[in-house]
Design brief:
binds magnesium ion; 3 domains; 16 helices; Rossmann fold; alpha/beta; binds guanosine-5'-triphosphate; flat; Gyrase A, domain 2; six-stranded mixed beta sheet; Four Helix Bundle (Hemerythrin (Met), subunit A)
């Protein structure tokens, strides 16, 4: 990992031509280096903090290259917690590059991806979950994603987990005291109280773990694969859900040969729709490749819509397809409801195996609204997301929460089972450590590299 004592600089606005460009400088030597490349028009001394100063920018040869507005922040009252300077220059990539060159010529170094935020984390400005939320906020493509990230940025997860940590620490202290004074075993009554507290803490962690499926869908979107036999109207349904003619529809079976993917958004959640090749036994090598992709798409999807042609009697192949999808989340669409039906109620029930069934005409748009409603239900678990409390959005966070919950459970069991305090203490310390990894109090260099390397440079 890079040296966190260096003074770093980077372009924080997108590269290219724009109204203005912002170059950031952070580290101990920020003010000194800024003084070498920027000459304010005002001669006020001392140079005021957090006040926009207009002046001239000089390149590495000392030649004036632009006029810029400069903001200075002293440590620890800045984003990174270090002394920082922000230069707003005219938005030309040439000027920004010359300014960065000049700063590097004076001893600054180019920042690595996410290094400003890494420093904010290192300086205690935010915990790891909050730093992750900064990346999510920048990457947000819908307002719901941004709102969710902002809630996490403001420490929502930490607040949710706080009482759990407090409980664990209290119990550790109590047990350690008992262990130290061996004669005094923890009385059964207070053991009971500890078990209750641990159970409550575990439930709290459990709620956070359970929010992950929804949290991940908000962050990454929901992938829905439209599958079924050839010619049942998958592409027509795909287009109807998307609201435009993206996939080719034709009378011939075997029209769709490859995955067709398109994204839209429902209720602020990105939805990745996938139209697939109709699955059947085929000798055609190209069609077979397409069918392999359909099977892969099923594996990658959060849910599937299995389409069947309601105007033709159900076939063995339909039933076999449904069997292959056991254990997958999904819904059945009986398409072509505008034509006379050939399915009996029992057929549909057998085919559905507990999945919801929608009678739809992709051609006319009948039943599409109901299908969309099911999609929203699947994505949100029926919970209004805006009002949701904590929403865990990353697998890393879920793992630590699960691990902590498991340890707390083991400790409660040891206490309830009358085992020696040492056993419970071991699990409680491990549990506390998992919570520490979640917030970054306990971390490894690999973990930090993994998280911050996904940031953009300049944040
Ligand atoms: N009457 C009627 N015809 C439909 C409906 N949906 C699709 N079709 C017709 O069924 C035929 C096949 O439609 P596609 O959407 O291409 O079917 P597919 O399942 O994608 O077919 P493959 O890509 O070959 O697997 C076309 O002639 C469509 O116009 C519907 O709701 N009603
Ligand atoms: Mg098709």
């Amino acid at each position: 990992m890079e040296d966190l004592r260096d003074t770093i600089c980077a372009l924080s606005t997108p590269p290219g031509h724009s109204g203005i460009a912002v170059v950031r400088l952070s580290g101990e030597r920020s003010f000194e280096l800024a003084g070498k490349v920027f000459v304010p028009y005002s001669r006020k001394s001392p140079v005021p903090l957090r006040t926009a100063l207009l002046g001239r920018i000089l390149d590495s040869q000392g030649a004036e290259i632009d006029e810029a507005l400069v903001l200075r922040f002293s440590a620890p009252n800045s984003y990174t917690g270090e002394a920082m300077v922000e230069f707003s220059t005219h938005g030309s990539p040439v000027i920004a590059a010359a300014l960065i060159d000049a700063l590097c010529g004076q001893g600054a170094r180019l920042a690595g991806p996410g290094e400003f935020t890494l420093r904010a984390f290192a300086n205690g400005k935010m915990n790891l979950a909050e730093a992750e939320a900064v990346a999510d906020l920048i990457g947000a493509q819908t307002l719901l994603q941004a709102e969710t990230a902002l809630r996490q940025r403001s420490g929502e997860l930490g607040r949710e987990i706080g009482p759990v940590r407090d409980a664990v620490v209290d119990i550790i202290v109590e047990l350690e005291t008992a262990v130290e004074f061996v004669e005094e075993d923890v009385p059964a009554l207070s053991r009971r109280g500890m078990v209750d507290r641990l159970e409550e803490a575990r439930r709290r962690l459990g709620r956070a773990v359970d929010s992950y499926r929804r949290g991940r869908i908000v962050r990454e979107g929901f992938t829905l694969a439209v599958v079924g036999r050839p010619n049942v109207g998958k592409s027509s349904l795909f287009n109807a859900l998307l609201g435009r003619d993206r996939s080719i529809v034709a009378r011939l079976p075997g029209t769709t040969r490859d995955l067709v993917s398109e994204s839209s958004s429902i209720g602020g959640i990105p939805v990745h729709l996938q139209d697939t090749a109709g699955i059947r036994h085929s000798e055609d090598p190209v069609e077979r490749l397409g069918i392999d992709r359909s099977v892969e798409a099923i594996g990658d999807a959060d849910a599937v819509v299995l389409v069947a042609d309601r105007a033709r009697a159900p076939s063995e192949e339909d039933m076999r397809m449904r069997e292959r999808l056991v254990g997958v989340r999904g819904a059945v669409v009986l398409n072509k409801s505008d034509l006379p039906g050939a399915w009996k109620a029992e057929d549909a029930e057998e085919f559905a195996r507990g999945w919801p069934v929608f009678e739809v005409s992709a051609l006319r748009g009948d039943g599409i609204g109901e299908l969309r409603g099911w999609m929203v239900e699947e994505m949100t678990g029926g919970v209004a997301l805006e009002r949701e409390g904590v929403l865990v959005t990353r697998l890393r966070q879920r793992r630590q929460l699960e691990e902590a919950a498991e340890r707390l459970g083991a400790a409660a069991e040891a206490l309830a089972g009358g085992m020696s305090e040492e056993f419970a203490l071991y699990d409680l310390r491990r549990g506390l450590e998992s919570l520490g990894v979640l917030t970054g109090e306990v971390h490894t260099e690999d973990l930090l590299t993994e998280i911050f390397s996904r940031f953009c440079i300049g944040k």
